[in-house]
Design goal:
The chain has a single domain, classed as Jelly Rolls (Sandwich), CATH 2.60.120.200. The chain is 9% helix and 36% strand. The chain has a 17-stranded mixed beta sheet that branches. The protein is globular and about 55 Å long.
Length: 317
């Protein structure tokens, strides 16, 4: 069935003109059909966006759709002065991204000795973890976004999110006076902190952020606004790393709705998010939030069965 869906997406894409559509416009050559039905009922008449959807049936990541690294976000520095031990940094490594057996696989692991000894790590202090990121090459404004995934059984953040409105305008991104929006469709972790300080497992986090520019991911993003209803969390009776679950997000000009296994878990008015954003999947280590992973749990895998995007037609709310 997935192979049929992959062929269907490819046929749509070959008929499409590539590029970012105006905010709220229907992308070119998008079509409904092929047995692909979103769990969100409101989006069932919306057009599928093949350039932002993938069944991951190829032998490698589709470089026309996705990047396996981010030039402006290569990791996060470990806390502490130069020369001190690195205990909580991480480095996005392209070799931690793979397509295997019809799935996108994002890995988190410990840095190897060569990576730890590199001049880049000595300067940036990314040790001790190597993680992974996939970011869409194209942006979109408004739509319904859905993945089916099994997250890591490790104390590592697994996330599905939208961000970076200024990716093509560095003057706006790196100067004062603008806002950089981010929508976290979900963030979850798979095990309690290695040191026993906290347990964020079985908790589903959904958040929106308004960062004031200048904004450089992982380095300069400390100043942010605090909109109302910006953060939600839902306790579950299952471990996200034990089985596959479906995660959805509805983004229209008037509202934002988060879904878990087809059921809405959070909603808020759309009072800010009206610019195209990139789709992103990643794994990170948040020592001050989730905690640090037990080395015995690494390497760990974030497995994504599919990623599908439907465009919200202009005028829909």
């Amino acid at each position: 069935m997935k192979k049929c869906l992959a062929v269907f997406l490819l046929s749509l894409e070959m008929a499409s003109a590539f590029g970012n559509p105006p905010c709220g416009a229907t992308p070119p050559a998008a079509s409904q059909g092929g047995g692909i039905v979103p769990q969100c009922e409101e989006a069932r008449t919306w057009p599928l966006v093949p350039a932002l959807s993938d069944e991951f049936e190829a032998s490698r990541l589709d470089a026309a759709k996705w990047d396996d690294w981010c030039a402006t976000f290569q990791g996060r520095r470990a806390a502490g002065p130069a020369g001190s031990p690195c205990e909580n940094g991480f480095w996005f490594r392209p070799d931690n991204v793979a397509v295997e057996n019809g799935e996108l696989v994002l890995t988190a692991r410990l840095l190897n000795e060569r990576e730890k000894a590199s001049r880049e790590n000595a300067y940036m202090r990314y040790a001790p973890y190597a993680t992974s990121i996939v970011k869409s090459r194209r942006k979109i404004c408004y739509g319904y976004f859905e993945i089916r995934a099994k997250t890591m059984s490790a104390c590592v953040s697994n996330a599905f999110w939208l961000y970076d409105p200024h990716s093509e305008n560095f003057d706006a991104k790196y100067s004062e006076g603008e806002i950089s929006e981010e929508i976290d469709i979900f963030e979850v972790t798979g095990r309690p902190d290695f040191f026993g300080r906290r347990d964020c497992t079985r908790t589903y986090y959904n958040t929106v952020h308004w960062y004031c520019t200048p904004y450089l991911e992982g380095i300069v993003n400390r100043k942010l606004l605090a909109p109302p209803n910006r953060a939600f969390k839902t306790k579950t009776d299952f471990d996200f790393g034990a089985d596959y679950h479906t995660h959805g997000f509805l983004w229209t000009p008037k509202k934002l709705v988060w879904y878990l296994d087809g059921k809405p878990v959070a909603t808020r008015d759309n009072d800010r998010f009206h610019r195209p954003l990139h789709i992103t999947l990643d794994s990170e280590v948040f020592a001050s939030w989730f905690g640090r992973p037990d080395p015995k749990d690494l390497p760990a895998k974030f497995r994504v069965d599919y990623l599908r995007t439907w465009a919200c037609p202009k005028g829909d709310d």
